């Protein structure tokens, strides 16, 4: 039995699914099944009860999972200690990010990080906030960056910067002609919204509820780019991170609606699962993202 066998076994246990484990590990499902059978043959026991609908871990499988996690943790720790002796930061980190962060913040941070630590391999998954939290909880991701906050005992969350949310409108919209807009003028507007599960959507819903606004009609898009294009085309108004529309505002393609006596901000947070071992590569990436706000112009 080797380390790869242990990694495959642990992944199947954590995902409770052979196909999902195969996809995550970039292996075929038959290959994963073969590895598991080899482990079971070596241990002379059954680790999983397989059925068309689900995969259950046997009592023997649960015991072996605990020990396998300890072995993998010690293996990674040993690798890192050896690398530290050479003053080399290496390894692989899997990073998740919600769309706003993944498209407008993470690329610059990663470019700097990769230049400073060429021995670290980075895998990135971008999705909406709900999807990223779910993958972090299941240990598919090591570190994730999300919009807003999360309350989950399985996840550690630390804010790393403030994000300003603004309301944007087409340049020819009646509200765009006003220097300052009273909240009541936002009544009966057409809103362009992100999809459910998005941190921006959650923030928009909260604002609409807090201001007791009646939405005349709404359209839903699954990306910030889609929202910008829809607003620019005159479809309606939207709430969006200022980070995503800097260029469009500077070029006069969109207009910001300034709401009287209101400023909208939210926290962007680093989240991570309860991992047994955190490498130097993880620590340095977290340090880099925590210092990012200080470098923003």
TrEMBL record:
<dbReference type="InterPro" id="IPR005119">
    <property type="entry name" value="LysR_subst-bd"/>
</dbReference>
<dbReference type="Pfam" id="PF00126">
    <property type="entry name" value="HTH_1"/>
</dbReference>
<dbReference type="InterPro" id="IPR036390">
    <property type="entry name" value="WH_DNA-bd_sf"/>
</dbReference>
<keyword id="KW-0804">Transcription</keyword>
<dbReference type="InterPro" id="IPR036388">
    <property type="entry name" value="WH-like_DNA-bd_sf"/>
</dbReference>
<comment type="similarity">
    <text>Belongs to the LysR transcriptional regulatory family.</text>
</comment>
<keyword id="KW-0238">DNA-binding</keyword>
<feature type="domain" description="HTH lysR-type">
    <location>
        <begin position="1"/>
        <end position="58"/>
    </location>
</feature>
<dbReference type="InterPro" id="IPR000847">
    <property type="entry name" value="LysR_HTH_N"/>
</dbReference>
<keyword id="KW-0805">Transcription regulation</keyword>
<protein>
    <submittedName>
        <fullName>LysR family transcriptional regulator</fullName>
    </submittedName>
</protein>
<dbReference type="Pfam" id="PF03466">
    <property type="entry name" value="LysR_substrate"/>
</dbReference>
